[in-house]
Structure formats: C-alpha cells, structure tokens
Specification:
The chain has 16 helices and 21 strands. By secondary structure, it is an alpha/beta fold.
C-alpha cells in the first residue's frame, strides 16, 4: 500500500477505511485486519498537509531515545483561545489514533483547502503523529496476541524497553522530557491519548478513561463529571458508538463491577492533571475489527472537538477557577484511592461469561458467548477519596546537587530562584523513618513508599546556586505532587533520593564502647537510655537483646552521628 500521499484528499482512502451512514466502518482493502502507516509514512502524510494547507504546520519538539525526531502537527489558528492536543502510538501496537488523526485531518483539510476562511473553529489542534518512535520502528505482526489487527504495527516498549505511559513524571526517556516541555509551553486545555484496550469481551467498540474527576478536583473536576462527560457519551451514542467507561474490572467478569482507573501522574492523563488539563484516554476494544476501532476513535475526536468548540467559555472558566482554588489552598491531597463504600451503576452491554474445560491448562477457562448477549446494570465505583494530604509550604529548597530533579522542574516551566551566596537557614526537614520498596524492578525502578515520616525544624547549610522553589506560581500543583514524598508518583517514590536513605559513617564496637561510657556521663542522656532500655526489656525488643543495638542507640544521639541518613534532601520553607 502506498502511503506517500499526494494530496490531503487521499489520506482516508490510503488508510483503506470507509464509513457507512450508521457510523460503522469497514475495511476497503487489506481485509478485516487493515493497515496502519509506519512512523516515516505517518510523518510524511502530516508533513504533506503542512506544506499544502495554509492552516497546517509541522515542527519538531524533541528527540526520541532512538535518535529520531518527535513531531507536532498543528491545524488551525495559532492564536485560537482553546487548544486540544492528541497523542498517538505511545503504545505503537495500538495505532487506532494514528489512522484516526489522519482521517480527522483529511476531513478538516479537504473541507477548507480551497477556502481556509471557512474553518472558523476556535480550537487549535495539536497532533503528535507517533510518540513512541523507537517502539514504532520495531514493526511486527504478532506481539499483540489478543488483538484483531492491523496487519503490522509497532511494539509497546520504546528503544530502552520503557513503557512510555509510565514515564511522564520520572522522565527516564528523552521522549517524556521533551513531552513535559511541550505541555508546559503549548498549554493545551484538553488532552487525548489514543489506545487499544485489553481485558474482557463486551459490546462496546469504544471505552474511555477520563482524568478522575475527584482527583482533578475543584470546578474543573465537577464540570468534567457533571457536564462534559455526559455530553461526550451522548455524542458517541448519536454517532453510532455507544461508549462505556474503561473496563477496569474488580473481578473476573464485568458484571462483578468496574472502578475508575486511578491514573496517577505516571500516566499521561494523571500527568496533565498536574497542569489543570482535562485528559482522556480512548481505549478502542481490541477484539473489534481495526476499521471499527479507527472509526470509533475518529468519531470520538470529532465529538470532543465539537464539544470544546461549542462550550469553550465554560471550559476556560472552570480551568481558571480550579487554578485559583489550587493557588488559595493551604493543604493539598497527594494520593487517592477509589472509595469502595460508594457505588453507582451503569447500563452495560456484554456477553455471558461461561466456563469450558481446557485440555491445555488442565482447568476450566473463561469464554464469552456471543450467542448470549445481555444488557444489565453493573456496579460502578467512581468516587475517589484522598489517602494522604500535606500542608503546603511557602517554598521548597532543592539543592543543586539534585540536578535530575532540577531538570524536570525546569522542563515543566517551574519558577526557580537561585540562592546567591553560601548561607545557613532554618528549614523544615522531613525524616523517612520507615519505608519499603518493590522487590522486582518496575519500569527501571523499585518503587518506594514512605511508611512513616517525621519533621523537625533545623538549620541547614546551603550553597550559592541552590534553588528556592516558591509554591506561589502557576506550576504549584506539579511542584507539590512531585516534591512531597508521600505523593503517589513523587520523585521520592521513583527512587530519585535513595542515596539519602543510606548511612555513610559507622562505628566499631570495640572502640566506641569506651566512648559510650563517656557519653553516658551526661545525666540527661543516661536517664533517657535507662528508660529506653526498661521499655525494651518489657517488650522484648532489639535494644534489650542486641549489644550493638544498645551502642547504636547511644551513637545516634552523639555528636559522631552524621544526622543525614534517612533525611529527605528537599526542605520546606514555611
């Protein structure tokens, strides 16, 4: 198939797709599986439109881990008051959005090529043709074992085998760091990440993950939940694609209930929420024909674009009110969970799940009987509650030694103030008293959780060039949810500060024994030691059983102890 498009009007035809009057798509050629362009072909197609159409532009916004450029295609007035960004092929084996965006651009450009003035939309559209370039270049037929087409596609992992939809905060990839900068500079109001689902079998071709409204919070979260989402679901139904929330099932079958997917900032829509941006992840059903998945994705983008254009003033007002709410807050939630005590229901179309004996696994396996469809109400848990909350300081102090943190703050347009000279200041210091981490690596890290934290106010030495990070700034929410160690996807969680959890200096018991005797000459310390020992003996704890534990108790309260082990290196100014 030739993807060297000669004119904008050839885009949809080259995709081998057509749409019938009912909104249902079918493959024109290439069979049911259909075809999707390679990275180079997709970029060339968008570039051709950018050259030919006065409302279109194409530019590079960074470099991927595989060394190829990342592109942003724009369509519309650069000064439009509203901005919609669409990200495609973060998982290149799920390319519905690549085809859908080509079809969308084909429709817009064909309608306005001879009369650009007929495009009076108040929305500037930004499209990333293929975000995971490295994965897109690993073209294959078969790694999506449960998916119905297309014939060939890319691979989930990028050039470093990272899942880029887990990388938005930690930015191990060059892709993610470039994306962070793009979001901060381009400033979309709404963001869409296009995907293909995994999981159960059911009737809907399209399912949707929205930024969790409670977690998004404030007037923007309320507007999303009560106003925009109902309109989007109604619009998709009218287009011939009844849509359901993403099937994040609580049991083996959807009938047992589903819950909102808690997309923390490691994911695209959780990350964009840190900038008060509404985010959507389209999840076209893996078992439906590729042509249908593309058509449903295309229609969702059109429904969303129309909704943003028609209700832009309300969207901008809700965003502004949420930004102001965050600016005025004294405390902020940094971790969330779905409340299992609050349950609603949705009307769901599915297929009856049955069991059949499998001679391969030697057990009963589930299959969905398409001859036994049903429509019924199923439990839906979609209320989120905060599980951790912090008082917001006036500022944080980030020593320049933590350059990886500084780089990510700068990428997100965080305002930083450099300390002009060496100084000692009084700050609030957090101490990580207990913590645990995953045993197995996850996306290149061992995710760490702070189980217990204490705080103290002490003087610390700072140096010329260290950074003050005020919280009174537009990037306030991003700053809080990356620098507070309790936050779900903080830099602490992603192991940026593990070096501070290790003690560097120790003592030899045979030498320190005499020193300990001298230290216990202090009656206050001696009384504290005696009390701790009595409590330990009563509880049969380590202090009572271990000679070294007793020495270590004294060592930790002596001038010899370094005092920096387990001390969080980002300080708070109140």
């Amino acid at each position: 198939m030739d993807y060297k498009f000669l004119a904008a009007g050839l885009l949809s035809a080259a995709l081998s797709l057509s749409t019938n009057g009912a909104g249902q798509s079918q493959a024109v050629d290439g069979g049911e599986l259909g075809q999707t362009p390679t990275w180079a072909e997709a970029v060339a197609a968008f570039q051709k439109v950018a050259v030919d159409h006065p409302l279109a532009r194409m530019r590079e916004f960074g470099t991927s881990d595989v060394g190829r450029p990342l592109h942003l295609f724009e369509f519309g007035d650069a000064d439009a008051p509203l901005r919609l960004m669409i990200n495609n092929a973060i998982h290149p084996g799920e390319p519905c959005g690549v085809n859908a965006c080509l079809a969308l651009v084909d429709s817009l450009s064909a309608a306005t090529l001879n009369d650009p003035g007929s495009f009076n939309s108040n929305v500037l559209i930004g499209i990333i043709p293929m975000y995971n370039v490295g994965g897109g270049l690993r073209r294959n037929c078969c790694t999506r074992a449960n998916q119905n087409g297309p014939e060939a596609y890319g691979f989930r992992g990028n050039a470093r085998n990272l899942d880029l939809n887990r990388d938005f905060v930690k930015c191990d990839s060059r892709n993610a760091l470039a994306f962070n900068k793009l979001i901060a500079q381009w400033k979309p109001d709404v963001f869409v990440d296009t995907h293909t689902s995994n999981g159960a079998d059911y009737a809907a071709t399209m399912t949707l993950i929205a930024t969790q409204p409670d977690k998004l919070g404030g007037p923007l979260g309320t507007w999303l939940k009560q106003v925009q989402l109902p309109r989007l679901y109604a619009g998709m139904k009218a287009a011939g694609w009844p849509m359901t929330p993403y099937m994040n099932t609580l049991g083996e079958r959807p009938e047992e209930g589903i819950a909102d997917f808690m997309e923390s900032p490691r994911y695209s829509t959780g990350f964009t929420a840190l900038h008060h941006i509404i985010g959507f992840t389209t999840e076209a059903h893996m078992l439906k024909p590729f042509a249908d998945r593309v058509a449903a994705t295309t229609d969702f983008l059109q429904v969303l674009l129309r909704d943003i254009s028609q209700h832009g003033d309300a969207l901008l007002a809700a965003r502004a009110a949420s930004v102001e709410r965050c600016a005025q807050a004294d405390r902020w939630p940094v971790a969330w969970a779905i409340d299992r005590e609050q349950v609603d229901s949705i009307y769901f179309g599915g297929y009856t799940a049955k069991k059949i004996w499998s001679p391969i696994s030697g057990s009963a396996r589930t299959y969905y009987d398409h001859d036994a469809p049903f429509w019924d109400s199923i439990p839906y848990y979609h209320t989120a509650v905060p599980t951790a909350e912090v008082a917001i300081p006036n500022a944080y102090v980030v020593p320049q030694a933590w350059r990886h943190v500084i780089e990510r703050l700068q990428a997100n347009s965080v305002a930083l103030q450099r300390i002009p000279r060496d100084t000692t200041i009084l700050v609030e210091v957090l101490h990580i008293e207990r913590h645990h981490a995953l045993e197995r690596p996850y996306e290149g890290h061992h995710l760490r959780t702070a189980d217990s934290i204490s705080a103290s106010t002490v003087s610390v030495q700072l140096f010329a060039g260290d950074f003050i990070v005020p919280t009174d700034q537009p990037a306030r929410r991003y700053v809080i949810e990356t620098l507070e160690p309790r936050a779900t996807d903080s830099f602490f969680t992603w192991n940026f500060f593990d070096a501070c959890l290790q003690q560097k200096e120790y003592f030899s018991p045979y030498v320190f024994e005499a020193t300990a005797v001298e230290l216990l000459g202090d009656p206050v310390l001696a009384k504290e030691f005696e009390s701790a020992l009595e409590q330990s003996l009563a509880g049969d704890s380590a202090l009572a059983q271990s000679p070294r534990a007793r020495l270590n108790w004294i060592y930790q309260r002596s001038p010899h102890h370094e005092g920096t082990a387990d001390r969080y290196p980002i300080y708070r100014l109140n």
